[in-house]
Amino acid sequence: MKQAPKHPVRLERQGTIALIVIENPPVNALGVAVRRGIAAALNAAVAHDKTDAIVIAANGRTFPAGADIREFDMAAQEPSLGQLFDLIENAPKPVVAAIHGTALGGGLELAMAAHYRIASSDARMGLPEIHLGLLPGAGGTQRLPRLIGAELAFDMMMSGNQLSAGICAEIGLIDSVTSGDLRSEAVAYARTLTEVRPTALNRTHLMDGGDYMATVAARRAQVKADLGAGALAPLKIVDCVEAALLLPMDAGLQLERAAFEDCLASRESAGLRHAFFAERRAAKFPEAADAKPAKVERIAIVGGGTMGSGIAIAGLQSGFAVTLVEQGESGVNAALEQIGAFYERSIAKGRLSEAQGAAALTHLQLTNKLDTLGEADLIIEAIGEDFDLKASILAEIGAVAKPDAVIATNTSYLDLSALAAATGRPANTIGLHFFAPAQVNKLVEVGVHDAASAQAVMTGVGFAKAMGKTPVRARVHKGFGSGYIGNAILEAYRLAADIMLEHGATPAQIDGAMRSFGFPLGPYQIADMSGLDIAYARRQSKPRDPDVRYVEIADKMVEQGWLGQKTRRGYYIYAEGQRTGVPNGDVLKMISEHRAHKGITARKFSDRDIRDRILLAIVNAGARLLGEGVAARPSDIDTVMVHGFGYPRSRGGPMMDADATTPSIIASRLSVLAPEEPSLWAAAPVLTMLAQERQKFADLN
Ligand code: T1G
Catalytic residue among 129, 256, 279, 381, which? Predict the structure, then answer.
């Protein structure tokens, strides 16, 4: 995001109405220059003897979407948001906030400090600070309960959700909604106002406590039950709302300030803010300098299995015309069933209306004919991971696609350059690697290769963004850890875990250790969920690297037919219809026999050992991918691991975690483990360089 313009705030007059206009693209973030600009304009407006009322509005796509998050890591500069909002609230003239776009966080707090609020009918408002490990720290926790009551205030601050203007008017957060010209309506509204109306009628005034204390107690208990006592921001929000109920406004604001500072200083907030910028940075591709995305209206997907159908649903949900090609009638019917089931479920759960579901399906064309692909702007091949089959389908696609169409393969690890060549038009071919379930998971690895044109790559990026996805640039990595960023790191993760399995740990212990670190599931639960036969086929499809240890446990399980949830028997045993299982005793027995066969004496691993070994393997694999140009920057690796593999978002990602430990300590810890398995733990050159030069991965972003 570029530097704020020198004068991001203008004061205009329309007769006796002063108009304060903010212009700080792209989202009018309330950085120091904007705060100073508003304060100066307000003072000038108040000082002007012909001012009857003041309107605060913004140009561009939105009313301020919050404080400037980047300033949180800088020294505080005055006026703070709190000081500015006090100035607005205590203005001797009525102040109206004219809201459009997304008034979020500090932007909504600004509006709440104003005396009156008018919004355009498509405006949305929310306090998403909790998604950054923060709380509304500029009066929001004190003014919102006074405006809409404690219960609704809790809902807004705990969910961070955006509410429509209509709902905001219903709950009393805003005074009126207009579908006309907001600016002129706001000025007309201001002309009718004679009274100031500060949210806190008198700063020592206590809210009507009522039986709110039960609400507070219930919320506190719920947060602790759902998130544990360590959930800093949510518990601080409860404290602040309690203060709003019990204390005069000024005391409440002081408590809020202190609570905000505690959250801001937390590791969790640092991780969440890092993740916020990392996923936006990831979408910045160097190819953008040379080309713009081509227009994509009609997409085609070849292969209607789980991934293909998921991509089709994501396309329909994003307004694209979708052609889905499957083999034979049964294939077409199976795909239709999957897609139909998604819409039935969504309508049943109230996520979509019948009309929305029906409308989306009118844009779906299902066929078993490849020659229908001639109209598509983008064609995605999404069949099974069989190189020869993919290459022959891609050749057929290349033969029927229109000249400027972009072709993409959803392969997760096969040789992209070779597959691109198979289309006969490698320049127009890219990788688009979706993550299951494709209609839900936000991550898309955009695969680049030497022959791919900048326009084809940017068209892939533009398409991913239009689907509400987070695109990350990646090259296919060959050899140990083959695939794009995610799969390459997953292979290191799995090998680190398998080595401990072979030497004494159990699947349940390893899964437990990784869940306590913050992953939703451990590696063996994931293996059971995705099916052991998938990874087995992949291992069989490529030559073994003699320099990399090979643990045969998973192979032996597949040979036993223990494929995971699909056979209700894997590392765990599953009751009918259950997704959580109990440890599979036969696997534990098989592992002990495996150890005996290899002459391995089992040893104890603490949960900390397990976590350290796996995280060191992940970070080192990440460093290797940076060195080989598979990943463009460390924060891209963080984005992939957070969105694609459940790495706890509140930690920011493995590369941010490595910086928190420092590359030099990471390197020394690796040196202890390296002799055990160099392919995993011998420090990658990039890591050694950072350690020697006392630099951080963040310096490479
Ligand atoms: N501060 C700094 N930069 C911001 C920003 C912000 N608040 N919001 C967006 N940007 C940048 C973003 O990095 C990107 O930059 C560009 O703007 C476009 O964003 C005291 C503590 C508003 C819904 O949490 O949710 O107020 O990549 O790509 O998809 O209580 O941005 O182009 O260089 O996301 O159209 C609370 C965060 C802050 C809202 C628009 N506010 N922003 O989405 O565009 S904390 C938020 C968003 C606070 C007070 C507290 C979204 C959006 P670049 P984008 P978009």
Answer: 129
DSSP class of residue 205 equals P
Phi, psi of 189 (to 5 degrees): -65, -45
Residue 137 CB–ligand 1 contact under 6 Å: yes
* CA 281 – CA 273 distance, rounded (Å): 12
Phi, psi angle pair for 470, to nearest 5°: -105, 105
Q: Which candidate, 209, 211, 231, places its Cα nearest to that of 221?
A: 231
Q: How many A from CA of 388 to the centre of ligand 1?
A: 45
pLDDT band of 630, cuts 50, 70, 90? very high
327 contacts 407 by C-beta, under 8 angstroms? no
109 is catalytic: yes
Angle (nearest 5°) at CA 464 between 459 and 466: 95
Q: What residues pair up with 527 in beta bridges, in sequence order? A: none
**Residue 470, strand partner residues:** 443
Distance CA 687, CA 685 (A): 5
Q: What pLDDT sits at residue 471? A: 98
185 is catalytic: no
Mean pLDDT across the stretch 281-294?
97
Alpha-carbon gap, residue 212 to 205, rounded angstroms: 17
**pLDDT (0 to 100) of residue 321:** 97
Six-digit token pair at 85? 């909002």
Rounded to whole angstroms, the Cα distance separating 584 from 610 reads 20
Q: Which residue's alpha carbon is nearest to atom 9 within ligand 1? A: 27
State the distance from the centre of ligand 1 to the C-alpha of 27, rounded, in angstroms.
Answer: 7
Q: In this predicted structure, what is the pLDDT of residue 25?
A: 95
The Cα 385–Cα 307 span in angstroms is 12
546 token code pair: 């003699």
- The token pair at 691 is 């350690």
With a cut of 70, say whether residue 55 has pLDDT above it: yes
| Sheet strands side by side (includes 9-14) | 9-14, 17-22, 53-58, 95-99, 116-120, 176-178
Q: What is the pLDDT of residues 81-102, one digit of tens each?
A: 999 999 999 999 999 999 999 9
Distance CA 130, CA 471 (A): 24
Ligand 1 and 102: CB distance under 6 A: yes
Q: Among residues 12, 23, 109, 297, which one is catalytic?
A: 109
Cβ–Cβ < 8 Å for 245, 209: yes
CA dist., res. 153 & res. 171, Å (int): 10
Taking only the tens place, the pLDDT of each residue in 190-237 is 999 988 887 655 555 555 555 677 889 999 999 888 877 678 999 999
So what's the pLDDT on residue 211? 64
> Is 406 exposed, middle or buried, given 0-12, 13-18 or 19+ CB atoms closer than 10 A?
buried
pLDDT digits (tens, 9 = 90+) for 133-187: 999 999 999 999 999 999 999 999 999 999 999 999 999 999 999 999 999 999 9
Burial class (CB in 10 A: 0-12, 13-18, 19+), 561: exposed
| pTM, to two decimals | 0.95
Find how far residue 150's CA is from the centre of its chain.
Answer: 29
In this predicted structure, what is the pLDDT of residue 186? 98
